[in-house]
C-alpha cells in the first residue's frame, strides 16, 4: 500500500507541475500577445516585406534649338552567379560566350575569357564581377549572349543599374551647365535648377517570395515624378565659336584665364558663356565662372564716366579736352596714359584713344564737390548690385561711396578710369548692351523655358532693368564714342569690310587674390557690339595674363577674340546680307587664281582649265555641269588683300590661296575644307592666323 500511495503521490505531483507549466505558458503567451505583440508582428513583417525607393529621372537641359546639353543615362554593373548554371548548359556554351565577350569588350581574347569563366564556375562563384559602368546598348547586347539569355535563375545574369549624368558636348559650356553627381557639389544650371531637374522620388512595398525574390505588393506603389526639362538660351554654334576663339588666344599668349559673354542685344539672352582657366599641364578647362567674378575693369569702365557727364550735360562728345601730354597729378598720385603725348582733342577721340588723364579729370572736375552724384549715376546703371542672372555663384560688385572707409581724395579720379571699383564682365556686357539697345538696359538670362513631358509650363520673358540709361542725346553720343574706337582708336585693327563694330578696349593692372601691382599681372578686355548700325550681339572678352607677361593690352589679347567670334557669327548668316554685298570691289585688284565649284566641291584649276576654255589666270570661276553634262565656267573675281573663300577646297589648294595673302594656316581634321575661322572677304593681314576645319 505504501508503494501505491508513493506512486500516486508522484503522479499527482507530476500532473500538477505539468498543469502549472501549461498555465505559465498560457499566461506568458497572453502577456506577449498583449504587451509585445505589435512589436513582434512588426519584426515578422519586416522580415518578409521592405520599402523600396523608386528614383525619379532627372530632367534634361536643352538649347532653344533642341540640342541636348545634359542628360541622364543608365549604366550597369554586371555580376554572374555560377552556382545556378547547369553544368551541361555551361559546357555547351562557354566557348561561344567567351567569343561574344571578346567581340563586345575587345579588352581580352576569347581564350582569356574562357579560362576566367571556367575558373569562376569551378570555384562556384555567386557574385563574380564581369564588368562595371556598362552602357545601355552594350548591356542589351550582353543579356542576349549564350547562357546569359537564360536570365538570373538559370543563366546567373545579375545586372545592377545606376543613373549617370553626362554632357554630350564635353567641355562645351561645362561650367555654365554643370554636372550633377550624387553627394557631390554641383555648379552651374545643374545647381541653379536642381529643384526643377531632380523631380520627386516614389516608393513601393515589396514582399519576399519563396526563393528569395521580391515582388511589389499590389496597391503599394507610389510612382516617382520625373524632373522637368530646362531649356537654355545658349546657342551651341556661337558657344563653340567663342570657346575656340578664347582657347586659341589663351594658348597663344600663355594666359592665366579667359572669359567671354555673348549677349543678344534686344532680349538679354546669353548666347555663349566661356570660362577657360589654365591647368597645371598647360591645357585650358572650364574650371571657374570668371564672368561672374568682380575685378577692376580698367578702361572699359570709362563709358560709365561718359554716361554720367553726358546725362548731366556737363560736356558733349564734340567738346575739346586736354590730355596734358598724358600725365596729370591728383593729390599725391600721378595719373598716366598708357601712351604719352596726347594733347587737346575731341572727347570722343580721347575715349577712342583711351586717355586715362581725360576721364580722370572729368570725374574730378565735375563731381569732386558732389561725389555721391557720380556714384548715383553708377547705381542707375546697376553696377552696384548683382546682375540677377539666373545662374548660381554670381558675386556682388564693389562700388565705393563717400561713406566707404577706403574712400580718399584720389578715389574719384581713379574710379573714372576703372580703378577702385570692381564689377564683373557680365556687368560690363550689360552696360554696353544698353548702349547698343538705344539706352534700354536688359537683365541677362540663361533659362528660356521649363518643360514637363514636352509641354512648356514656364516661359521666361526678357526683363528690362532700365527703360533708358539716358536721354536720346546721351545715348547717341555714347554710341558715337564707342564707334570711334574701332574707326580711329585702339581697336581700329579689328575693323571689318562687311559690318561695323563699336566697342572699347581696356587694360588693367591687377592686384587681387594675393597678387600685387608689382607682379605685372594684367587684364586685357574688349567689349563691343555689331553691326554698329543695327546691333544684334554684344560681346565682352576678358583675358588675364600670368605674372610679368609680355603682351597684355586689350587690343592685343582680347579684341582679336571679339573679331574672330563676330566674323564667324556674321558669316553664318542669321538674317544678315551676304558678306560680299558690302564689298567695295572697285578698290581691289584681282588676284591670280582659279576656283571651280561643282557637285558640292571646289578645286583649283590648273591644266584642266585648258580643256574647258578658261580665260587666263586672273579670275576665279564657278564651274558646274550643264544640262548636257558639260562643264561650264562662270568667272568671278577674287581680290588681292582680302581673305578668299576656300570652303570645299582640298587642303593643298586652300593653303596655297591663303598663304598667297600672307596668312598663317592651322589645320583641324581631315578631308576638304568645311569651315574657316576668318570670314571670306575679310581684309587680310600678313601673319594673321586662320584655322581650317576639314571634313568629308
Number of domains: 4
CATH superfamily of the largest domain: DD-peptidase/beta-lactamase superfamily
Strand content: 15-25%
**CATH class assignment of the largest domain:** Alpha Beta
Cα-to-Cα separation, first versus last residue: 120 Å
Helix content: 25-40%
Helix/strand/pairing class, anyone? Answer: alpha+beta
H/I helix tally: 20
**How many strands appear in the DSSP assignment?**
31
Question: Averaged pLDDT, please?
Answer: 84
CATH architecture of the largest domain: 3-Layer(aba) Sandwich
Radius of gyration from CA coordinates: 37 Å
User: Main beta sheet: strand number and arrangement?
Assistant: 7 strands, mixed
CATH-defined topology of the largest domain: Beta-lactamase
Query: Which residues sit in consecutive blocks of at least 5 with pLDDT less than 50?
Result: 577-637
C-alpha geometry:
elongated
